[in-house]
TrEMBL record, chain A:
InterPro entries: AA_ABC_Transporter_Permease, AA_ABC_transptr_permease_3TM, MetI-like, MetI-like_sf
Single GO molecular function: transmembrane transporter activity
Membrane topology: Multi-pass membrane protein
Highest classification ranks of the organism: Bacteria, Pseudomonadati, Pseudomonadota, Alphaproteobacteria, Hyphomicrobiales
Pfam families named among the record's database cross-references: BPD_transp_1 (PF00528)
GO terms classed as biological process: amino acid transport
Chief location: membrane
PANTHER family referenced in this protein's UniProt entry, alphabetically: ABC TRANSPORTER PERMEASE, ABC TRANSPORTER PERMEASE PROTEIN
Protein name: Glutamate/aspartate import permease protein GltK
Keyword Transmembrane helix part of the UniProt annotation: yes
UniProt keyword terms in alphabetical order: Amino-acid transport, Cell membrane, Membrane, Transmembrane, Transmembrane helix, Transport
UniProtKB/TrEMBL annotation, chain B:
Annotated InterPro entries: AAA+_ATPase, ABC_ATPase_HisP-typ, ABC_transporter-like_ATP-bd, ABC_transporter-like_CS, MetN_ABC_transporter-like, P-loop_NTPase
Family annotation (SMART domains): AAA
Listed Pfam families: ABC_tran (PF00005)
Organism: Prosthecodimorpha hirschii
Keyword ATP-binding: yes
Name of the molecule in the record: Arginine ABC transporter ATP-binding protein
Phylogenetic lineage: Bacteria, Pseudomonadati, Pseudomonadota, Alphaproteobacteria, Hyphomicrobiales
PROSITE patterns: ABC_TRANSPORTER_1, ABC_TRANSPORTER_2
GO function terms (MF aspect): ABC-type amino acid transporter activity; ATP binding; ATP hydrolysis activity
Keywords, alphabetical: ATP-binding, Nucleotide-binding, Transport
Keyword rRNA processing attached: no
Coiled coil (UniProt feature): none
Family per record: Belongs to the ABC transporter superfamily.
């Protein structure tokens, strides 16, 4: 009887934590590999003083500004088209929804680089653009590298974004549409005040992702002479042959831009999660 | 007797494969509380949704305050209304849903002011004052700035009632307002509805709460298989119905 009571008495015993040997070994191996990589870069023939010299050079900083400009211009075009085509896609009008489907099919199907070249070379097939009788321009004057890149990247982005927006609209409960109608809302007011704000919670994380992707996709515009970071870095290394140094400079700025945007994304998502976030905190 | 507010004649609604409403006719007078009872799948909710034009009807017609729903009459022709006209007609009717359907991205107060400000074009200040008054009336004076996810089911449904009242409707439709609630939360919602009934609001309530029907309703309609089988004063229908199936249904719920 006494023995049994002793057996179930644990409060005086000391707990020895389990040792995670596997974790220690894995961490050690990875750190060693990392050290080898760092050593390779230190011993490699990289002239670090060139990196420092060109990091803040005027040409590179101008390229950075142009990259940021193009990122937001193309995303603005993409999001605008994305919302319009998503609403067309779910509309009851069969013509509109078919056209929206076709838009996604074509512009998601062709490579971004190809679309860039297509827009930039539009003058070859359409020497003049405009509305006949009203106004007309020479295509070569209108289709600058900036305009061509904005259209090409924006329109292909719109194809992706419209799918994201459509997914967001579908994620809103049918009861929300009914509740909005029951207080006498029309179609547009309902979309703007009730449906889109809720769809935003689902739409924003992928859009943030795509915005970050766009920062890097703009580097493709270097092939049509748009002076963004990579293009300007290339011009410098064609002259001084410090290829890797200047590519490191360009990587630094891409990484910086992406980091800033990632932090911004976090705050925007937090805003649109209002009313939902609280549920998580409580639960 | 007061004038007729809702007149439904031979309302028919077909879904692919079955007839949800089969020539349902009902009159609701101003200030009347009408409970619609019946087994599930009998078309009660569908009938309510037709009155609010959330469903398009395939036959018959509904008038609210003498105005034909969904169509404009010109001579011997009926022209289908545009979305904006339908939205305008809906403003006369409030609706309370089984699953509350509050706007989750808006606070309780904003849920109530949303319609008055953006649909009716009321002043922000006036709409907020009215909304605060309504939320106080449903016992939620201390929850105005809470989001729906922070409220219990009973509290959410009371906000939904305040939201419907915020539009100053002539009629409020309740679609099984207590069916999604935990049992202990049912009475707080029924109390608010009772208070609303006593203030003279015209109400059509689809419900399984026989106690509420007996205590508050003026008339009760019994539906089965898409038809209104019996309608009359609440006491009469609930205690000594003429229809045999109605009597069987009432016996079954009381078991």
């Amino acid at each position: 009887m006494t023995d049994e009571r002793d057996m179930y008495q644990t409060s005086h015993l000391r707990i020895v934590p389990r040792r995670h040997w596997g974790r220690w070994i894995a961490a050690g191996v990875v750190c060693l590999l990392l050290a080898a990589l760092v050593r390779a870069f230190i011993n490699g023939k990289i002239e670090w003083n060139y990196v420092g010299q060109f990091l803040f050079s005027q040409s590179i900083l101008e390229g950075l500004v142009n990259t940021i400009l193009m990122t937001f211009a193309a995303m603005a075009v993409g999001i605008t088209l994305g919302v319009i085509f998503a609403i067309m896609r779910i509309s009851e009008n069969p013509v509109l929804s078919t056209i929206a489907t076709g838009y996604v099919w074509i512009f998601r199907g062709a490579p971004a680089l190809l679309q860039l070249l297509l827009w930039f070379n539009l003058a070859l097939v359409f020497p003049k653009i405009g509305i006949p009788g009203l106004f007309e321009w020479r295509t070569v004057d209108v289709m600058t590298p900036f305009v061509a890149a904005m259209l090409a990247l924006g329109i292909q982005q719109g194809a992706y974004t419209s799918e994201v927006v459509r997914g967001g609209l579908l994620s809103v409960d049918a009861g929300q549409y009914e509740a909005a109608r029951s207080i006498g809302m029309g179609q547009l007011l309902m979309l703007r005040r009730i449906i889109l704000p809720q769809a935003m919670r689902v739409i924003l994380p992928p859009i943030g992702n795509e915005l970050i992707g766009m920062v890097k996709t703009t580097s493709l515009a270097s092939v049509i002479q748009y002076s963004e970071i990579l293009h300007n870095a290339q011009i410098i290394y064609y002259a001084n042959t410090r290829v890797l140094e200047l590519l490191l400079v360009a990587s630094f700025w891409y990484l910086s831009a992406v980091t800033v945007l990632s932090i911004g994304q976090m705050y925007v998502e937090r805003y649109f999660a209002r009313g939902i976030q609280r549920l998580k905190a409580a639960g | 007797m007061s004038e007729i507010l809702v007149k439904a004649i031979d309302v028919t609604k077909r879904f692919t494969g079955f007839t949800a409403l089969d020539r349902a006719s009902l009159d609701i007078r101003k200030g009347e509380v009408c409970c619609i009872i019946g087994p599930s799948g009998s078309g009660k909710s569908t009938f309510l949704r037709c009155i609010n034009m959330l469903e398009r009807i395939d036959g018959g017609a509904i008038w609210i305050g003498g105005e034909l729903l969904g169509y404009r009459r010109d001579g011997d022709r009926l022209y289908e209304m545009r979305d904006s006209e339908i939205a305008r007609q809906r403003r006369r009717t409030g609706m309370v849903f089984q699953r509350f359907n509050l706007f989750p991205h808006l606070t309780a107060l904003q849920n109530v002011t949303e319609g008055p400000i953006h649909v009716l074009g009321e002043e922000r200040k006036a709409a907020a004052d009215h909304a605060r008054e309504l939320l106080a009336r449903v016992g939620l004076a201390d929850k105005m700035n809470h989001y729906p996810s922070e409220l219990s089911g009973g509290q959410q449904q009371r906000v939904a009632i305040a939201r419907a009242m915020g539009m100053r409707p002539e009629l409020i439709l309740f679609d099984e307002p207590t069916s999604a609630l935990d049992p202990e939360l049912v009475s707080e919602v029924l109390d608010v509805m009772k208070d609303l009934a006593e203030s003279g609001m015209t109400m059509v309530v689809v419900t399984h709460e026989m106690g509420f029907a007996r205590g508050v309703a003026d008339t009760v309609a019994f539906m089965e298989a898409g038809r209104i089988e019996e309608v009359g004063p609440a006491k009469k229908v609930l205690s000594e119905p003429d229809n045999a199936r109605c009597a069987a249904f009432i016996r079954a719920v009381h078991k």
